[in-house]
Amino acid sequence: MKFSTAALTMGLATAATAFVGPSQLYVPHKISNVRTTSSPTAFHAATLDAETVAVNGQDDSETTANSMRPPIHMKWDQVASQLEEAFGYSTEQVAAYAQDVEGDKDKLLKLYKAMQMARGFENACNQQYMQGKIRGFMHLDNGQESIPGLLDYAIKQTDKKFSYYREHTHALASGVDPGAIMAELFMKDTGTCRGAGGSMHIFDREQYFQGGWALVCEQLPYAAGGAKSILLDRTLGVSDDADYQKQNVAPPADDDRISVVFVGEGGAQNGRTAELLNSAAKDNLPILLLVIDNGRAINTFTQDVAQNSNVYEQGKHYGIPGLLVDGMDAADVAKGGKAVIDYIRSGKGPAILQVHTYRFNGHSPADPEHERGRKDEKAWARQEQDPIKGFEAKYIDQLGVFTEDELKDAKKEIMAQVKDAVKFADDSPMPPVELAKELEFPDAPDTDYNLREGPAFADEVNARTISPEQMSTVQDHIAALVAKAEAGEISIGDAINLAIHEEMLRDPSTTIHAEDLQAGSSYDIPKLTQQTYGQMRAADEIIDEGHFIGKALGEGLNGYRPIVELMNTNFGIYGMAELSSAGNTYATTGGKFDMPMTIIGAGGTAPNQSLGAEHSQPFHAYVMGIPGLKIATAASPAAAYGITKSMIRDNGPCFLFAPVKMMKEAKGPIDLGRCMPLNKSAVLHKAPDAVCSSGNAVTVLTYLHGVKEGQASIEAIQEEGFDIDLIELRSLKPLDMDTIRESLERTNKLCILDESTKSGGVGATISALVSEELFDLLDSPVKRLCMDDAPVPYASSMEVAVVKRSSDLIQGVFDLCTGQW
Question: On the CB side of 413, how many CA atoms lie within 13 Å of its CA?
Fold first, then answer.
């Protein structure tokens, strides 16, 4: 049903002031910054603190009852003013957005149903949680239903959606099946993620719903990567097939997909917000930052911890417009939100939408809300700031668009769907226990990556995206590196660079991110990539590893194969949250989403390195505990080349560590065109059988700079009448226990020259595994030559006490062979 503009305008004017809150409101700390602006426009006269008054002289019960922030009572003309001023819309265009919603009864009804689905589903979740059928942490969205209403109205199936841990309703409004969501919460095999994700990790491939992320704000760089993947599709002329793999089919000419990322106004104080806005503006990303402003950072009043929570204005520094709307009026959210979304779809760049709302529930069902001033606020908000009640009052009582029975029937229809979802979840089977181990890696550890074929259309995509001059330059560069390799003179950095170029030409879905990328970074790993493949595929990044690891994760979710080069692996500390999520994603999504990502960097701690503590940390040990992450090391050009190629072809996250002090020093040949396994060690030197039989041989496990130290010690060890099996641990995870076993069956003695700390280090893990699995092969305890737990000092006179070297290895072998250990 359509309505005339005149009737609509009259009705809206009548309804505009229909909903008011308490006349006096209390702000916990008067000195806290409030939402102010110097702008003289009519809109800014109604900012979020417009009615805030410090309460004095009231009794305790009155003060407690009013312990809340005020509503904003924003009228549509104030929203329209913002759209004209910040987004450049004409009065006529703004009126058309209003008419499209307010003048169409079917759209209003659909909006109402979306809100009722959100409310009904969350109420059902709460009931099932109390019955013990849903477990763990769960975060409900009651009171914020105007946002799923907007999604249902304005977001398309192919748009990429990135939410946080309070995402049930966002998934519902994005088209994800209610039964599958409920089954996920019930831990069932029919859930969106086969019961592996739970409440905070809802994913759906068909609807491009990409989380559900549990760490506050981690989703922001992922969404930037998702938006970047849209631009990559357009640049390369490719699109997704049914398996999220790239196909040589260009997106349609009218491709207007966007990436949508949700964040709370409290979470938006995180530094990732500034990084997202910078990246979005710099690359003109088609991304919407949708800020859900309920005034609480968990349960803390946001204004108590945030100097300025006007997130919609924070884009001004980057040239990104923003809009503030009142979540109490679902139609206004839909109208204003659609205008913002269309701004992005038109190619004008990113935008911010901030929705002022109230959350009716505590942070989670187990939240002690009465201890944090929430109880009275919730009671007031449920009565005075309920968007569903507001919709019913506006469109039944004020405008007469619906009868009470019409909306009751709509609610009844939705409640039946919610009931069906609960029954489906209840009746579904639990996932098999074997699934947990199956979801560790997308590709089995023994995968032969030489058998993986590149896309058949690679040459065609390369021809249309790389100019003949660029192709000639990179082919000359590759030829020069091949010549070095054939002469046995290629360095580790150059070997990795050669592997990267070969793989980027073999598969155009391969991308790379790095700091100082144009200049080749510190060791030439990304050399000539941007000059060849352009800024879309080879991106210079800001100096924050967490941000561009996160962007790579977002690309990996969307059919690309990102490479991340860390100038030094110690800097990866900034990206621990993103690395952790990369490792978890394949399993968390129930195997629905592959997570290809290759992280490469120089690191480790060499003797006499003189880099001090912060550049000498054993980051390889730090990430050993991240599930789902394959970790390798390479102390030679051959290993670096072959492992890099395999990692780029792997469908999961992989991390290659190279020795920082050997990147240019170590040179040698490589096996051109060949991939190396990601689960094997390498025996670099083997003790003669006779020496082993006499009890004078030791198995030595080492990696990174320890390889050089081990090789340097062999002659001195042999002069004493002893020898070693020197094994390079090229795979730290998964660990090659078979090779260790084979050597211990010969030597019965184990020494670990370990480039990590005594507590929690690589050697500690290996020693424990050997004791558990190979104890009967040992004639003596494992000898661990590891870094001391003290920070690595700069002065070499002190460093010798912390960092082990060849002299320590020689003494260790002597002690083992002479019974002194």
Answer: 12
